[in-house]
Amino acid sequence: MAKMALSLALGLLELALLSAVLSAQKIGTHVAEQHPEMPLWTCSALGDCTKETLTVVMDSNWRWIHDGQYTNCFKDGAWDAMLCPDPDTCSSNCHLEGASTQEYASTYGVHVVSDGLMLDFVTATQYGENYGSRLYMMEDAATYKMFHLKNREFTFTADSSQLHCGMNGAVYFVEMQADGGLAKSSGKNEAGAAYGTGYCDAQCPHDLKFIEGEANIIDWNSTSNPPVGHYGACCAEMDIWEANSRATAYTPHPCDITGLERCEGVACGDKNERYDGVCDKDGCDFNSWRLGDREFFGNDGTFRVNSAKPVTLVTQFITHDGTDSGDLVDIRRFYVQDGKVIQNSEASMAGVSGDSVTDQLCADLKSASGDTNDFKRKGGLKVMGEALDRGMVLVFSLWDDSVSDMLWLDSDFPATANPTDPGVSRGPCDTTSGKPKFLRATYPEASVTFSQVKVGAIGSTESADRRLGELSV
């Protein structure tokens, strides 16, 4: 569900430099784009890891969009009627501005730290406030890094100690196009991946200002929170880490489609048509608290994974025959903290067993909780594996949730359901604790740090000494 992340619209005031909830397709000329550095280690089956210095780019929805000079195309949740009377004219008139590395920090709260990034929740400037961020790892100056994770493992270290109930410091993969939709837009998108265009996810977000190079102004609802347009942008999504200091989950979301699809109507799966859309919006979430282990993850030393300290997490994508071409059958997780390997929790919900995401665990969880098994209907792990095989883009984000207050991650969801019913309680947070207005006013100093990102063969990204060391159970 990281995709409610798009509800994270920037709360910027009218001045141009902070009109960051905006996106555009032409390239502005006021500020040269500079991508902050972030390293990636690639590891072989022998355990040898090679460090490569790559970069990240800010999503286009956070950027200033203007007419090529200093007039905003979009302000206060609404499009300028003169510059944007229709989608094509708007795309032609509007420019997406770059950001320097200094502005990444001072305007968006994105800081380069040792071997990684720190993302601030609230960044205040003389012009207003920016809330959270979403960034993509780059292969080069104009192309997203494409990860092929089947029969691989993905590892990084997270420090979520400063994240409160209702916040989500997320690391995930989505099936965006490597060029940010440049080629597919038929010339409408001139900015591309270099400026963070082309986002999509399994929630089929409608709050993207441009989709496939076209302004999403049809039926634009500026009174919605966040403002939304007629079209959505759907694609497969693999949530590796959605977490604050109180709860966490990892979740595959398969889709019936290949790559990004601009959706409308039933295909988007909105509201009462949730399970008729092209993507599995619920996914199959492995949330230790929801699955019955209330002592596994939390913010002090009484929990086996102590979120008050950094923790390294390893996610393995297992195929049925141990080859790159095999079908995905299992998504496994373990943690490393204080030099100890911590095995993932075992499900203890009645009728559900296992310590990883398999089709069987997903079916049992859906049955026990009374949820629709859209995961199976959308093809389950096999289809998720096909998306991983095609290649997906790595996303880092920090966000709050104006749609459902992040209750689906860390509290009782739905809030009106009986919390003692199977699957309703997702974490220890109160149902009133995740309101964005409260969070932004009360915890502006919150942040999350992601570092030591590694990818490689199964068993390669964490040392054999740790794997064979003392197990914490």
TrEMBL record:
Pfam families: Glyco_hydro_7. One of its GO terms (molecular function) is cellulase activity. One of its GO terms (biological process) is cellulose catabolic process. It is an enzyme of class 3 (hydrolase). Residues 1-24 form the signal peptide. Its EC number is 3.2.1.4. CDD domains: GH7_CBH_EG. Keywords: Carbohydrate metabolism, Cellulose degradation, Glycoprotein, Glycosidase, Hydrolase, Polysaccharide degradation, Signal. It comes from the Eukaryota. It catalyses: Endohydrolysis of (1->4)-beta-D-glucosidic linkages in cellulose, lichenin and cereal beta-D-glucans. InterPro entries: ConA-like_dom_sf, Glyco_hydro_7, Glyco_hydro_7_sf. Belongs to the glycosyl hydrolase 7 (cellulase C) family. This is cellulase.
